[in-house]
Amino acid sequence: MRNRTITKAVMVGSLAALTGCQFQPSVRPIPWPTLGSAAPTLDPRYSTPEPIPTAFPSAVMPTPTPIPTVVPFRPFEDLDCRPPMLGDAEFGYCRDALSDGYYIWARCSQPCPEWPYPGVEWRNVGESSGLRDFMQLIEDRDDALTARRSALGSGFKFLGIDGTIAALGWPTAECIVGGELTLGTSCVRFVLALIAAGTVGIIGFNQAGEFSRQADESGQSAREVFEELGP
Amino acid sequence: MSAFGKVSLISFGVLLFWTSFVVGGVESLSDGDIVGGLIGVGAFVAALVALTRERFRAYLRKATNTGGHPARVFGAFAVLALVSTPYAISLARDPLAFVNVHVTRSLIDASVTAGISLVALLTNLFVYIASGKAGRGAEGMK
Question: CA-nearest residue of chain B to A168?
Fold first, then answer.
């Protein structure tokens, strides 16, 4: 009974809301100013899009700039050389096969003149005391580089022997017997052999460094003489 | 002789062949360094002759069976690698590396020495570990 009364009340209330109760706003809308009723025009700067530039505007490719060819300098083959000849691709000399002159070449201390061989400059000179000085410096440089190689070889040789003695010579040393340090004759001999071989090896490496410096100095001096013998 | 002992002896044989016979011997003789060259060739030939004697072979067996042998082998090759590898790198960076024949030959000498040292070090290490595992495995089977 009670439920039926509530249902009727809800139905009547809903009907009244649909027919009579309407929302009345208390605030009036504000009349905002407008720009006019004409249709908006687009700025021509933006309305006409320009064609997008492409990486390849035409089918015809531009001709690429040729890359300058770097030619390794092989002086004894590239120049008309005959003995006497000495040096390498950076510093050296040889006799010109077609004249009584000599070809001499040296590493550039500044940017080289335009020619295909990188870093090296050559010229043809006649007999002079300057040329003899240059030739002597080239010989000194070559001797220093040979001595450097020999000294390095000596260093490796004695280091190899030293390592072999250290690894395989231990049983003869008898430095430790029964857990005690003996320092007997055989032990002293073993240690001395190790020190001697190691020292000679180190001397070899040290000398190699010294010869390397000598070769550099001879090269620099040869460059100075080369400039004095300039064209 | 154990596998590690054999490998270590072969490693030292290869090392001596290159450093003593080739670099310090034949090359020095070709450069006119008679004394240095003869020492290099002589050391290698003496080692070869000694290998034909049973007494020396017995000594080598004893040497490779001593307690600290692996440590000495690793130490020797590690020192050689530490010395020769920087030399090889510095020679490779030398502007004359492929320009001057003496520098090129020095680069080859140092590079091969460094290569032998590094390969010998790694090979000996590998064989030592492998033989140790095999030994432990065999003990486990007993």
Answer: B63
Q: What is the pLDDT of residues A147-162, one digit of tens each?
A: 999 999 999 999 999 9
Q: Give the residues across from A125 on adjacent strands.
A: A102
Report the chain A residue with the minimal C-alpha distance to residue B72. A167
- Residue from the list A89, A148, A170 with its beta carbon closest to the beta carbon of B68: A170
What is the reported pTM?
A: 0.72
Measured between its terminal Cα atoms, the distance across chain A in Å is 132
A92 within 8 A of A85, measured Cβ to Cβ: yes
Q: Which two tokens stand for residue A27?
A: 């605030």
Q: How far apart are the first and last CA of chain B?
A: 21
ipTM of the complex: 0.86
**pLDDT, tens only, B55-111:** 999 999 988 888 888 999 999 999 999 999 999 999 999 888 888 889 999 999 999
Q: For chain A, what is the domain count?
A: 1
**Rounded Cα distance, B116 and B22, in Å:** 13
Q: Residues of B with CB below 8 A from A158's CB?
A: 24
Secondary structure element (H or E) that encloses residue A124, with its range: strand A120-125
Which residue is associated with the tokens 């690698």? B81
- Can you give the three-state secondary structure of A174-196, one letter per residue? CCEECCEECCCHHHHHHHHHHHH
Q: What share of chain A is helix, strand, coil (3-state, %, to 5)?
A: 50, 10, 40
* Chain A closest-CA separation from residue B29 CA (Å): 10
Cross-chain residue pair A157–B62, CB shorter than 8 Å: no
Dist. CA A200–CA B43, nearest whole Å: 15
Determine which of A117, A120, A152 to mutate to test the interface with B (most B C-beta atoms within 10 Å): A152
Q: Work out the minimum CA distance from A56 to partner chain B, whole angstroms.
A: 42
Structure token digits, residue B128: 């030592």
What domain range is A85 assigned to?
Answer: 75-228
